[in-house]
Amino acid sequence: MPEPRQFILPFSHQPHFAAEDFVASASNEQARAWLARPQSWPYGRLVLSGPAGCGKTHLLHMWSAQHHAEIRPAQTLRGMPAPPQAAALAIDDADEAPDEASLFHLLNLAAESGTLLLLTARAAPALWHIRLPDLASRLRASAHVAIAPADDELLRTLLARLASDRQLIISPALADFMLLRLPRTSASLREAVARLDRAAMALGGRPTRALAAGIIAEITSDCAEHIANPGSNCQLDDNPMIFDPRLPASLNASTKTVRSHP
């Protein structure tokens, strides 16, 4: 009788941003300090910046939950925006807003109503490519805090959490091997764990150093290609989640083995 075939079916992880799931470290200490005192924000605005996968969206959701804030993704800003519906407003990925005039009007509406405003972006406002002078002036007048590059403690904790969430066993020796060779970003760790999980599941065994080495080589190559060609489709630079033990569906299809007879 033939062996049953194994099919690896994807099960996407849904993002969750609970405070207990956030990885606090020295790299995000200043950001957490600024978020804890919104009464000190000039004009009631703060821009929180950092690279993809650094913790911005998670912090935004934590702050929004604490202050009962309305959350608006920047991609939805088109035309004349509706006035803020709460005493606090958070705009994720503000530097990617498709309509600068809409963002400008929303900043004005928030200021007129005394609404606290938190914006996240990948870079400081001075580095945004803004065509509207009035919008550029408003943003430069806002308080700004950047999330620093991830430190060793943060990366090790995040790797352990990512593996635990997938019930993936990564030994301390294998963790050391991966951390020494992967790009030092949380996005790279998430992608490495996702690929390692899928590969180990497909092979029906535990992660090995040889398996991890191949995945690290792939990710390093992907990153190098993206640096050489910024217009390329680089998954590692396309992840809005941060310090979250789960990957978005676009990057992180979890795997599950289902047995079926032919």
Describe the protein in words.
The chain is α/β, with parallel strands linked by helices. The chain has 2 domains: 5-16 and 151-260, no CATH class; 26-146, P-loop containing nucleotide triphosphate hydrolases (Rossmann fold). The protein contains 8 helices and 7 strands. It has helices spanning 29-35, 56-67, 100-113, 133-140, 152-165, 172-181, 186-203, 209-228, and strands at residues 5-12, 45-49, 70-73, 88-92, 116-121, 143-146, 253-260. The strands form 2 sheets. It has a 5-stranded parallel sheet, with helices on both faces. A two-stranded antiparallel sheet has the order 1-7. Strand 4 (88-92), helix 3 (100-113) and strand 5 (116-121) form a beta-alpha-beta unit. The N and C termini lie close together (10 Å). The model is unreliable at 1-14 and 230-262 (pLDDT under 50).
Content of β-strand: 15-25%
The helix count comes to 8
Looking at the structure, what is the overall shape?
Answer: elongated
Question: What class do helices, strands and sheet pairing give?
Answer: alpha/beta
Q: Termini separation (Å)? A: 10 Å
How many individual domains? Answer: 2
Q: Whole-number radius of gyration?
A: 21 Å
Q: Please provide the count of β strands.
A: 7
Mean pLDDT across all amino acids: 81
Side-by-side strand order of the widest sheet:
3-4-5-2-6
Largest sheet: 5 strands, parallel
Helix content: 25-40%
Q: Element order, helices and strands?
A: EHEHEEHEHEHHHHE
- Spans of 5+ residues with little confidence (pLDDT < 50)? 1-14, 230-262
